[in-house]
Amino acid sequence: MTVKHFAVMAGLWLSVATGAQAQTGSHAGHGHDTQSDTAPASASVNAEAWAEGEIRKIDLKTGKVTLKHGYIPSLDMPPMTMVFGISDKQVLSQFKVGDKVRFQAVDETGQLRVTEMIAR
Question: Does the pTM exceed 0.85?
Answer without folding.
Answer: no
